[in-house]
């Protein structure tokens, strides 16, 4: 007969393993989605493994580079963003970029902040490895 504490440990271990599997599956789905179709700059950064707070800053820097290069996004859409919280009924214009465009942007982007330099390296590796 199995001891109660052993069963509890086993259940806890399986729960942790299932949580890790869900996290890895979600990361894989996001990465393959970015490889298949144009996505936003922040989404690609998160798929590459950049922290969410850093991804927003890097995406803004890449948008500035796109403006400087005269590079237009692959797609533009209108969406209702509720990421910030609440049920926002305001629509926002969002831009979607292909990995080839993102690769071009990362080569021209020269950030000064150390965490942005590391983030751009991750995004460049992701964009170049996916093509």
Features:
single chain; 131 residues; mainly alpha; two-stranded antiparallel ribbon; 5 helices; 2 strands; 9% strand; elongated
Molecular structure report:
- It is built from five helices and two strands; from the N terminus they run αααββαα.
- With 131 residues, it is mainly alpha-helical.
- The longest helix has 33 residues, at 4-36.
- The mean pLDDT is 87.
Quick recap of the structure?
This protein is mainly α and 131 residues long. Helices cover 65% and strands 9% of the residues.
User: What's the mean pLDDT score?
Assistant: 87
Uncertain ranges: none
Give a count of the beta strands, DSSP E runs of length 2 or more: 2
Helical segment tally? 5
Q: Secondary-structure element sequence?
A: HHHEEHH
Oligomeric organization of the protein chains:
single chain
- Spatially, the strands of the biggest sheet line up as 1-2
Topology:
Blueprint: H1 4-36, H2 41-47, H3 52-69, E1 75-80, E2 91-96, H4 99-108, H5 114-130
Antiparallel strand pairs: 1-2
Helix pairs in contact: 2-3, 3-4, 3-5, 4-5
């Amino acid at each position: 007969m199995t001891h109660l504490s052993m069963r509890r440990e086993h259940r806890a271990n399986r729960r942790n393993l299932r949580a890790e599997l869900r996290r890895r599956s979600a990361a894989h789905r996001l990465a393959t989605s970015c490889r298949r179709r144009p996505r936003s700059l922040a989404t690609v950064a998160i798929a590459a493994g950049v922290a969410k707070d850093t991804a927003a800053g890097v995406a803004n820097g890449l948008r500035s580079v796109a403006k400087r290069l005269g590079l237009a996004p692959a797609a533009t859409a209108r969406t209702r963003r509720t990421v910030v919280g609440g049920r926002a009924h305001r629509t926002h214009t969002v831009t979607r970029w292909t990995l080839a465009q993102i690769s071009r942007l990362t080569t021209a982007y020269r950030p000064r902040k150390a965490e942005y330099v590391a983030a751009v390296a991750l995004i460049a590796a992701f964009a170049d490895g996916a093509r």
